[in-house]
Structures are given as C-alpha cells and as structure tokens.
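PROTEIN DESIGN WORKSHEET
SECTION A - STRUCTURE
LENGTH: 490
TOKENS:
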C-alpha cells in the first residue's frame, strides 16, 4: 500500500473540517454519531451543480463521462423516522468528470410518495420496513415507489430504479423527473427490478417480480421490448438481484420467503434455510428449457455476474451470508444512529456458486468479506478475470472502508483501505478509451469522509488498486450514502 498517497488523501480530506456540514444544508441530527450523516436528510431542493475540489492526484487523460448514483436520502420528519433505510426517498447524484474536473449535482426523484409526504410533512406510504398510514391511497405499486435503488441509462435516457415499481425517467443533465417509463403499452405499471442485466451489446434483461410470478423483460439497446415472458417460481422469495450468462438466465430463490403480502414486507419474510438456495436456469433462446440446481441455504443481496465455461458449467459470483440481515430492526437502527453488528450489518463473503453441466452444484468461498460485487460491463455474462467489491469494517461504525479486486485467475485479491474515517460505496469499472482487455480499466467509487463531513469520488487504476486512487475529488459538503450507480462515458 502506498502510505504516502493514502496519508496525503487523509490529511487533505480532514483539513476541510467537520464544520463544512453546517453551511451546506445536510441535516445532520444533533447527538448522533458522526457516521449517521450517511443516513441524514439531504436538502429537499437538492444540490445545484458545483465543482468538487481536487484533493489528490489528477484525473487521467481520456477519463470523460458522467457517474450517476442512486440512494435513499430522506429519513425523518421531525422526530418521526422512516421504518427502514430502504424506504428513504431516492435521490440521484450526478458527477460529471472530464478535463481534469469533477462537478457534482443531486436531485430527489419526484415520485408520488415524495411529493405527497413532503406536502404532508410526514411519512404516509407503506414500504419494505414501513407500515404506512391507512389514509394513504395505494392504487398501484408506483404510489409507493421510492425510486431509490439504482440507475439505468438506455439510449441516452436515464432512469431511477426501485425493485417493486416502474422505472422513473429523469433528465440526464438536470436530473429533473420526467415521469414513469412505460416500456410497452401492455406493460404499463409492471415492476422493473433495480438489477437489470446489460449485455456487452446493450441488450437488457430484467425481472418484474410479483410474488411467485416473475416476468422477464428482454429490451433492445434502443429501449424496445423484444419479448416479455412469465415464469412461476412456486414460491415467493425476496428477489433483489439475479444473474445472466451468454446463454442462460439464472433466477435465484433464496430461502427468505414472503408468507403474506402485507406491509411492512420485511416482517412478512420468513427464513427457512432448510429449503436450500435454489437456482432456476432458463435457456434464453427457448424459455421452455428450464432446470433447477440447489446448494445449501444462504441469503444474499447481490451477485456480481455469471458465465459459462467450456464444459458447460455455470459460475455465479455472489456475496453470500449464512442468514439474512437488514431484516426487522436492521435499517431502522441506522436511521436512529444505532449500529448493531449482525443486525444492521453482517459479513458477506464473496463466493462462487458453480453448477456443473450435470446439475451438481456447490459453493466455493473466496474468504474475502464484502458486498456490492461488480464486474467490467464489457465482460458481463462472459468469462472474465475480475470482480470488484467493497468491504472491511471500522469498529463501531457501519459500512465498508475498503475496495477489493478479486482475481479469479490467480485466486488472489488486492485491496485499498480508505481508512477508519471513511465509508466506501460501490465501485464501478470504467473502460479506458481504446482499451481492449479487461485490465484496461479504472475503478470509480464514492466515499463518505465522516472525518471531514465531505463526500468524495475516487478513481483507481485497475493495474494496481493497492497504490490508492490516481485522482480524488471532494465536495464541500456530504450527501447520504446510496446503493448503486452507472457510468455513462462521454
Ligand atoms: Fe442492490
């Protein structure tokens, strides 16, 4: 590790001082621990475009594009706190990078839920961990859509995603909400999962989860629906993510099952590990060709990606847990400034589920702790060498502090530790201009510096992430922690 560079980043980041929060509208709650700023209300008017300060290194030549991220950013009205981190209203952050500079802006997605609750100045809509107010009218899932989980760019059109409702289209420059995206008239209001899978040619596969009945979208790079099929899983698991290979779709049924559809959903989820973790493998070209595989019962939120080797074996990168976390209690604690390890957070292990051509399946763990596994987008669904993820703990604080790069070829991993005063978020691959190999890439990720009270964006070179960022920028304020993002090259 390059301690000189890391020390320099720490010193420069800290020099801005925690007082920066006060003048920029992020509503840190008095009496809360320092990390709770990651779960504080963002300014309701959003963040107008503002240049970030270069605090270390320089942006590489050719690094040009826009980094979008989404996450919950409204958690309390007065003394009332939302029932779960997952139920905060979505705010999309936008960081335009190029010419050596970074400019940040952010806006809430103007969902029905956000508009109604801001008008009433109280929580109304039911959600993942929120019971909701009986007076709140719920005619469709989009009345409770928080639009807070991820973003998807399709043919120049930007969308904020949630797992149980429609995609919401935003202006990619101003982040102004344009409205619900209807992919095809007969699919109006159909859920659009927050983990679409984008093939290297731009073809998008995604799920519409509605209990045991799951719709499968195939969307072309222009945004047209090529097909929509339904499958019945025979059970209603918590489905947050899934996987594809070049030839197959892989729906993963974890034994965390919904036994009734009454909000808050988290209370309706039952953990039945004895039922195993099942994978439904569907042939993309003939969806009647389906087979099941099974491994020991584990919980998960995220896959990295999957691929098939020459023998026909399927490999799925996945962050596995021995049991679910972020269930009842988890998530609410964070809003209220409490951190309960094991409830609010647990150690996921980057693992690989391998399903042999004959159907036998097994789990191989790398032993590397972490979450938010991500792969190079040009190799999604294909054989590849790397998976990036974030992990590591600071004592007494939630969140990750480290970015890791798993090298499946060598079986080893490299890491960069941002330190105890920072909370790291998902890091994405950005292909270098003209780069041909998977290795010709950078990683980009946001980090909340809780020592200085500033949000940062860092660029690392895949050639050696342990050397630390090649460029680091800090905003003069913080914005709340989020979930997922996308990078749109210029
Ligand atoms: Fe996710």
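SECTION B - SEQUENCE
RESIDUE ASSIGNMENT:
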């Amino acid at each position: 590790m390059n301690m000189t560079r890391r020390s320099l980043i720490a010193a420069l980041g800290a020099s801005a001082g925690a007082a920066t929060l006060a003048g920029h509208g992020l509503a840190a709650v008095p009496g809360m621990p320092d990390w709770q700023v990651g779960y504080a209300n963002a300014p309701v008017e959003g963040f107008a475009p503002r240049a970030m300060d270069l605090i270390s290194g320089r942006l590489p030549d050719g690094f040009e594009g826009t980094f979008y991220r989404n996450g919950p950013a409204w958690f309390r009205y007065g003394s009332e706190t939302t029932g779960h981190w997952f139920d905060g209203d979505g705010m999309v952050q936008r960081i335009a990078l190029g010419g050596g500079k970074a400019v940040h802006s952010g806006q809430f997605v103007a969902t029905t839920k956000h508009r109604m609750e801001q008008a009433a100045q109280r929580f109304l809509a039911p959600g993942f961990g929120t019971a909701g107010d009986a007076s709140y009218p719920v005619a469709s899932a989009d009345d409770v859509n928080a639009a807070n989980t991820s973003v998807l760019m399709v043919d120049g059109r930007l969308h904020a995603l949630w797992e149980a409702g429609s995609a919401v289209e935003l202006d990619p420059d101003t982040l102004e909400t344009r409205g619900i995206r209807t992919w095809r008239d007969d699919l109006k209001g159909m859920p659009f999962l927050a983990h679409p899978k984008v093939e290297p040619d731009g073809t998008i596969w995604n799920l519409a989860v509605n209990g045991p009945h799951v719709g499968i979208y195939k969307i072309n790079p222009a945004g047209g629906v090529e097909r929509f099929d339904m499958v019945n899983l025979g059970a209603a698991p918590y489905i947050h993510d899934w996987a594809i290979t070049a030839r197959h779709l892989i729906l993963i049924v974890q034994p965390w099952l919904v036994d009734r559809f009454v909000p808050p959903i988290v209370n309706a989820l039952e953990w039945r590990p004895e039922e195993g973790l099942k994978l439904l493998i569907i042939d993309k070209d003939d969806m009647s060709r389906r087979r099941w595989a099974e491994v020991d019962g584990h919980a998960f939120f995220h896959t990295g990606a999957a691929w098939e080797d020459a023998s026909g074996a399927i490999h799925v990168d996945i962050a596995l847990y021995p049991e679910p976390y972020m269930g009842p209690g988890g998530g609410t604690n964070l809003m209220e400034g409490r951190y309960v390890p094991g409830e609010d957070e647990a150690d996921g292990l980057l693992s690989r589920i391998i399903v042999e051509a004959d159907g036998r399946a097994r789990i191989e763990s790398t032993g590397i702790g972490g979450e938010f596994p991500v792969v190079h987008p040009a190799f999604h669904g294909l054989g590849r060498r790397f998976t990036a993820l974030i992990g590591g703990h600071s004592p007494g604080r939630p969140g990750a502090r480290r970015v890791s790069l798993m090298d499946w070829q060598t079986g080893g991993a490299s890491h960069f530790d941002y330190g105890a005063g920072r909370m790291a978020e998902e890091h994405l691959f950005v292909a270098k201009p003209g780069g041909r190999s998977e290795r010709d890439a950078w990683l980009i990720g946001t980090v909340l510096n809780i020592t200085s009270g500033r949000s940062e964006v860092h660029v690392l070179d895949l050639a050696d992430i342990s050397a630390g960022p090649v460029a680091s920028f800090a905003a003069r304020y913080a914005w709340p922690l989020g979930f997922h993002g996308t990078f749109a090259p210029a």
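SECTION C - NOTES
Confidence is low (pLDDT under 50) at residues 1-25.
Residues 3-133+241-309+320-345+370-489 form one domain.
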